Protein backbone atom coordinates (compact mmCIF):
# COMPACT_ATOMS: atom_id res chain seq x y z
CA UNK A 1 0.00 0.00 0.00
CA UNK A 2 1.13 3.55 -0.56
CA UNK A 3 1.69 6.21 2.10
CA UNK A 4 -2.01 6.85 2.72
CA UNK A 5 -2.77 3.14 3.21
CA UNK A 6 -4.73 3.04 -0.03
CA UNK A 7 -4.05 -0.21 -1.91
CA UNK A 8 -2.35 0.16 -5.28
CA UNK A 9 -2.90 -1.60 -8.60
CA UNK A 10 -1.17 -1.35 -11.96
CA UNK A 11 -3.37 -2.29 -14.92
CA UNK A 12 -1.06 -3.65 -17.62
CA UNK A 13 -2.56 -3.13 -21.09
CA UNK A 14 -4.88 -0.35 -19.92
CA UNK A 15 -7.34 0.88 -22.53
CA UNK A 16 -9.42 4.03 -22.87
CA UNK A 17 -12.19 2.01 -24.58
CA UNK A 18 -14.98 1.64 -21.98
CA UNK A 19 -16.01 -1.68 -23.58
CA UNK A 20 -12.60 -3.30 -22.96
CA UNK A 21 -12.10 -5.35 -19.82
CA UNK A 22 -8.91 -3.46 -18.96
CA UNK A 23 -10.92 -0.23 -18.83
CA UNK A 24 -13.68 -1.83 -16.76
CA UNK A 25 -11.00 -3.17 -14.41
CA UNK A 26 -9.60 0.31 -13.81
CA UNK A 27 -13.03 1.60 -12.81
CA UNK A 28 -13.81 -1.47 -10.68
CA UNK A 29 -10.52 -1.25 -8.77
CA UNK A 30 -11.06 2.46 -8.15
CA UNK A 31 -14.60 1.75 -6.92
CA UNK A 32 -13.29 -0.53 -4.18
CA UNK A 33 -10.61 1.90 -3.06
CA UNK A 34 -7.52 1.13 -5.11
CA UNK A 35 -5.19 3.82 -6.39
CA UNK A 36 -5.08 2.84 -10.07
CA UNK A 37 -1.98 3.16 -12.27
CA UNK A 38 -2.80 2.44 -15.94
CA UNK A 39 0.14 1.08 -17.96
CA UNK A 40 0.25 1.12 -21.77
CA UNK A 41 3.23 1.86 -24.04
CA UNK A 42 1.13 4.51 -25.81
CA UNK A 43 1.05 6.65 -22.64
CA UNK A 44 -1.42 9.52 -22.46
CA UNK A 45 -4.37 9.73 -20.12
CA UNK A 46 -7.40 7.57 -19.32
CA UNK A 47 -10.32 9.02 -17.39
CA UNK A 48 -8.13 11.66 -15.78
CA UNK A 49 -5.32 9.26 -14.84
CA UNK A 50 -1.81 9.43 -16.26
CA UNK A 51 -1.01 6.35 -18.32
CA UNK A 52 2.52 5.12 -17.68
CA UNK A 53 4.43 3.71 -20.64
CA UNK A 54 5.96 0.94 -18.52
CA UNK A 55 5.69 -0.49 -15.03
CA UNK A 56 9.07 1.13 -14.34
CA UNK A 57 7.45 4.59 -14.68
CA UNK A 58 4.75 3.90 -12.06
CA UNK A 59 5.69 6.29 -9.22
CA UNK A 60 5.00 3.86 -6.34
CA UNK A 61 6.16 0.41 -5.45
CA UNK A 62 5.93 -2.24 -4.49
CA UNK A 63 2.36 -2.46 -5.71
CA UNK A 64 -0.33 -4.42 -3.92
CA UNK A 65 -1.64 -5.82 -7.18
CA UNK A 66 -0.67 -5.97 -10.83
CA UNK A 67 -3.41 -7.11 -13.20
CA UNK A 68 -2.57 -8.11 -16.77
CA UNK A 69 -4.61 -7.51 -19.91
CA UNK A 70 -2.02 -8.42 -22.55
CA UNK A 71 -1.33 -11.59 -24.53
CA UNK A 72 0.89 -14.15 -22.74
CA UNK A 73 3.76 -13.64 -25.19
CA UNK A 74 3.78 -9.93 -24.26
CA UNK A 75 3.20 -10.54 -20.56
CA UNK A 76 6.16 -12.88 -20.24
CA UNK A 77 8.46 -10.08 -21.44
CA UNK A 78 7.16 -7.79 -18.67
CA UNK A 79 7.66 -10.14 -15.72
CA UNK A 80 11.20 -9.11 -14.81
CA UNK A 81 10.19 -5.44 -14.59
CA UNK A 82 7.12 -6.38 -12.53
CA UNK A 83 9.27 -8.45 -10.17
CA UNK A 84 11.73 -5.58 -9.85
CA UNK A 85 8.89 -3.14 -9.04
CA UNK A 86 7.38 -5.66 -6.64
CA UNK A 87 3.77 -6.72 -6.26
CA UNK A 88 1.77 -8.67 -3.75
CA UNK A 89 -0.48 -10.32 -6.33
CA UNK A 90 -0.04 -10.80 -10.06
CA UNK A 91 -3.49 -11.34 -11.59
CA UNK A 92 -3.50 -13.14 -14.94
CA UNK A 93 -6.90 -12.45 -16.45
CA UNK A 94 -8.51 -14.85 -18.95
CA UNK A 95 -6.36 -15.10 -22.07
CA UNK A 96 -3.24 -13.62 -20.46
CA UNK A 97 -1.73 -16.74 -18.93
CA UNK A 98 0.37 -19.55 -20.34
CA UNK A 99 2.37 -22.33 -18.72
CA UNK A 100 5.59 -20.48 -19.65
CA UNK A 101 4.37 -17.20 -18.15
CA UNK A 102 3.22 -18.85 -14.91
CA UNK A 103 6.50 -20.77 -14.54
CA UNK A 104 8.61 -17.65 -15.15
CA UNK A 105 6.48 -15.59 -12.74
CA UNK A 106 6.96 -18.19 -10.01
CA UNK A 107 10.67 -18.42 -10.79
CA UNK A 108 10.91 -14.64 -10.22
CA UNK A 109 9.12 -14.92 -6.86
CA UNK A 110 5.82 -13.50 -8.08
CA UNK A 111 2.49 -14.90 -6.90
CA UNK A 112 0.35 -15.48 -10.01
CA UNK A 113 -3.42 -15.57 -9.55
CA UNK A 114 -5.00 -17.13 -12.64
CA UNK A 115 -8.43 -15.54 -12.40
CA UNK A 116 -10.35 -12.45 -13.42
CA UNK A 117 -9.50 -9.45 -11.23
CA UNK A 118 -12.66 -7.73 -12.45
CA UNK A 119 -14.76 -10.55 -10.97
CA UNK A 120 -12.75 -10.24 -7.74
CA UNK A 121 -13.53 -6.51 -7.59
CA UNK A 122 -17.22 -7.19 -8.13
CA UNK A 123 -17.20 -9.72 -5.28
CA UNK A 124 -15.75 -6.96 -3.10
CA UNK A 125 -18.53 -4.55 -3.99
CA UNK A 126 -17.53 -2.77 -7.20
From TrEMBL:
One Pfam family assigned to this protein is: CoA_binding_2
In this chain the CoA-binding domain maps to 3-96
Checking InterPro entries in the record gives: CoA-bd (IPR003781), NAD(P)-bd_dom_sf (IPR036291)
**Taxonomic lineage from the root:** Bacteria, Pseudomonadati, Planctomycetota, Planctomycetia, Pirellulales
Which superkingdom does the taxonomy of this entry point to?
Answer: Bacteria
Location of region: Disordered? 1-25
Tell me the protein's name.
CoA-binding domain-containing protein
Q: Which SUPFAM superfamilies match?
A: NAD(P)-binding Rossmann-fold domains
